[in-house]
Write a structure and sequence with these properties.
By secondary structure, the protein is of the alpha/beta class. Helices cover about 45% and strands about 15% of the residues. The longest helix is centred in the last third of the chain and has 52 residues, at about 395-445.
């Protein structure tokens, strides 16, 4: 894998003796241990945190990610890459878009590993929850302002503008709206109306030509018949996609109309008649969109998949061979129970005991090297002081300085090498323990996670789910891979407080789980 190294060292880092060269050496050694090839170096030494992403080197890095030149970025610690969680998540989303990885040596986050991806998923989910909490507090005052007819943000709809906190017709835009209604009532066609408006030199806001979709949205808006709708939608956070709020939250306020009630109703009827000519269809979700896509295995050996249909509310997985069926919410409920039941004793983790000892030994050696580095630097400073005071001649200085110089160079190389080895162990081995320790946390957090976050958690945690007539058998990554944990050692029947398995063709009151 081709990777890049991100170099940005703070004044505090430099005060501790961590130069850009030190950080680069540590990152290169980590890449070597992973079997990666370093092809790019992005140097932002001395660049302020608030200006990082606008810097030319940062833009070059993002371009290399999008082009596929590098597939991972190694950096010393998160604050050196992003100034806050929001910015980090934006960067991580960009990397995820191009299937690239982030590797933070200090925090032991490596999104090329399942543990790293799971950690990122949890961080994203919690950050999203925090954003939604803040958004909910801000949004609480919007319905009240809307009911009072007050400005709640943004420009007025096309054809209107705000004057002294009142929404009134815009003298430049309102004639365009009226003409759009007139042409559409004559032709009954959106594209023809758009073309006629363009021919007459009539455009939407910012001199843009009307498109059929935007024109239909305009002609369907109740504001033009004098009924302004507010507090009816909320943004999904990407400034592009919006979803409707429940109708009971909508607020309607009277404004000056631009067309008559009869004209607006006539346009609405044309839309209804046009829609009736075509059968209603729904877009089939992409493969892998559902929580357990590709990991459900029927007792007959065939995989279960969802066959979407227009009225579907809860995804249902079905086996085409033996007709076994089960609802997604049933599997999710049992997964939460399974996560709570995971119990791994220290002796079952086996190799981690040796790893902890190895990490401890390496840490002690690292501290010893740092002390020696500090001691040798003091000796060099003292030697330079003696030479400046002419207490020793040039020959004597050289004789004493050469071995000190050689030692400080060796120590300076050994420290980042040792740090890289510790980083490698933490991200690749202790990550397994991290997943196990977070399993019960995931069970608690499950209901607060978004559907996408849940899907990502399942992807990183669950290897396979075996579905039989009256049981679900969860096989987790890592947990089943430990040699000391045998399949079946966590096997229990009738001990789960399971629901009655609604949505299944074959009812079963008992459940079993093994991992």
């Amino acid at each position: 894998m081709n990777v890049g190294i991100w170099i940005r060292v703070s004044t505090e880092d430099q005060a501790r003796g961590e130069s850009p060269e030190h950080h680069e050496a540590r990152a290169r050694m980590y890449a070597e241990l992973k079997g990666w090839t370093v092809v790019e170096r992005y140097d932002l030494s001395g660049v302020s945190g608030k200006d990082v992403l606008e810097h030319g080197e940062a833009q070059r890095m993002l371009a290399d990610i999008s082009s596929g030149k590098i597939k991972s970025l190694i950096f010393s610690k998160i604050p050196r890459l992003a100034r806050n969680t929001r910015q980090l998540l934006e960067i991580a989303d960009y990397f995820q878009k191009y299937d690239a990885n982030l590797v933070s040596l200090e925090e032991n986050i490596d999104t090329s590993s399942p543990a790293g991806r799971l950690l990122y998923t949890l961080t994203s989910a919690l950050a999203q929850w925090e954003r939604e909490e803040i958004s909910a507090r801000v949004a609480a005052s919007i319905p009240i302002r809307a009911k009072l007819g007050k400005h709640i943000g943004g420009k007025g709809p096309f054809g209107y503008h705000w004057v002294e906190k009142q929404l009134v017709p815009n003298p430049e835009e309102s004639p365009v709206v009226k003409r759009a209604y007139q042409i559409f009532l004559e032709t009954g066609k959106l594209l023809t109306t758009c073309n006629r408006l363009q021919e007459e030199g009539l455009y939407s806001r910012n001199k843009k030509i009307f498109k059929p979709t935007a024109l239909k949205r305009l002609l369907s808006d109740t504001i033009y018949k004098g009924l302004r709708r507010a507090n009816y939608a909320k943004s999904l956070g990407n400034k592009r996609n919006w979803v409707l709020k429940p109708e009971e939250d909508w607020v309607f306020v009277n404004v000056q109309p631009l067309v008559s009630e009869e004209e607006w109703t006539a346009v609405s009827k044309i839309f209804e008649e046009t829609a009736g000519r075509y059968s209603s269809t729904k877009t089939i979700p992409k493969v892998g969109r559902f929580l357990f896509s590709g990991i459900l295995k029927c007792r007959c050996g065939t995989k279960l998949y969802v066959a979407p249909y227009p009225a579907m509310k809860i995804p249902r997985y079905a086996c085409k061979k033996c007709r076994m069926r089960i609802n997604e919410d049933v599997i999710a409920d049992n997964l939460k129970i399974a996560l709570k039941q995971i119990v791994i004793t220290p002796d079952q983790l086996g190799p981690d005991k040796d790893l902890k000892k190895e990490l401890k030994d390496k840490h002690e050696l690292l501290e010893h090297l740092r002390k020696e580095q500090k001691s040798v630097n003091k000796k060099i400073d003292a030697l330079v002081d003696l030479y400046s005071k002419e207490a020793i001649d040039q020959s004597g200085f050289k004789t004493r300085y050469e071995p000190l110089k050689a030692r400080i160079e060796n120590v300076s190389l050994e420290i980042p090498r040792l740090q890289a080895e510790m980083d490698f162990i933490k991200t690749n081995e202790i990550g397994k323990t991290f997943i196990i320790e977070k399993a019960t946390t995931l069970a608690t957090l499950w209901d607060t996670l978004s559907y996408e976050a849940r899907r990502q958690v399942v992807k990183e945690l669950v290897e396979r789910i075996d579905v039989s007539e009256d049981s679900l058998h969860f096989v987790f990554y890592y947990i089943s891979s430990f040699e000391s944990v045998e399949k079946g050692s966590h096997n229990f029947r009738g001990s789960w407080p399971r629901p009655a398995l609604p949505g299944r063709d074959r009812s079963g009151s008992e459940g079993s789980g093994r991992w």
